[in-house]
Structure prediction request, 384 residues.
Amino acid sequence: MDTGPVSGWARRLAVIATALVASVLLAACGSDLGGGGSDEEVTTAEATGEVGGDLVISQWPFYIDRKTVPEFEEEAGVKVRYIEDVNDNNEIFAKLRPDLQNGESADRSIIVVSDWMAKKMYDLGYLQNLDKEAIPTAYENLLGSLETTAIDPDRSYTMPWQSGLTGLVVNTKEAPDVTSINAIFDPKYKGKVTVLTELRDTIPMILLGEGIDPAEATTQDWLDAIDKLDGAVKSGQIRKLTGNDYTDDIARGDAVIALGWSGDAIQLQADNPDIEFVKPEDGCLLWSDNMVIPVGAPNPDAAYAFMNYVYEPENQAQIAAYNNYITPVEGVQEIFEREEPSLADSELIFPDDQFTGDCSTIDNPPEDGVDEVEDAWQQLISGG
Prediction:
């Protein structure tokens, strides 16, 4: 089992050095591509039973160990091109949309995106349903708590890659005793703070810091939180808004507090043990990233083989030991109890209800205010 994080700088060079500028968000609309938002029946990525060829995966960084992909290649007879080009949900959407709207997948057979983006892409007709008979291992070993979700009640088109928490990634030597999300606005950390370009991570966390439950937040609450952040950006309190590449700022010491994701902090500890994930006392967000199969995917058989492979508990344990995110696979904790007892007790991999009790799963603005909120957010991140 590969349990040790790779040297941080070697990994970070794989992250996209310059992020694509997120395009103006487009309202979900119908499509003629056979997806969830179209008038046509949703297409299914049918399996043929013949596994081989090439598999191209678009994935977030820091999400897989060094052994799993080559071991899968050897076992399945598949050549994998594993691209860590998902730095932000909107960036990958903007990058792939020109192909997807023409019914093509830019050679990808798996894309990993967050819940809300998976739903948006499905409603636009950019994703296919899964051939459930082709992934029996995945469905059999999927955690019971993840068998249904608001965006995909029957798991018709999503299969969780990992779940995780949004909170604070902190250099505890430079920013000791940080306990609240409101530390991002503390003047003593001016110019040393980054927040995410992900609207649905950043603003709900600010709302929690204001004592507002995202489930009860009004459109005006969201707009007020954006205004507050805008002021912090313009004053220089916030160093910058970033995608997953916020890890570079923390690693270099350019930032000492980052709004970020739980597993990243563990990866960063490989180079600096002072870096920790802090679950704010105000609350946090609980989310999933999902494997989806786009329209035009050239090799669904290889995609299904990969899904089954990473849902084998032994294989999943190797991944979870590396990335320290919440595993979606039953049986991993039992493996760790035998082989890695410290990981079996990790609240970041196996959080109990008490640990996540103050975490929100609400990451969308009120339905009648989505366009207004997204427009305001786009103005902020584009510097308008």
User: Anything to note?
Assistant: Residues 2-39 have pLDDT under 50 and may be disordered.
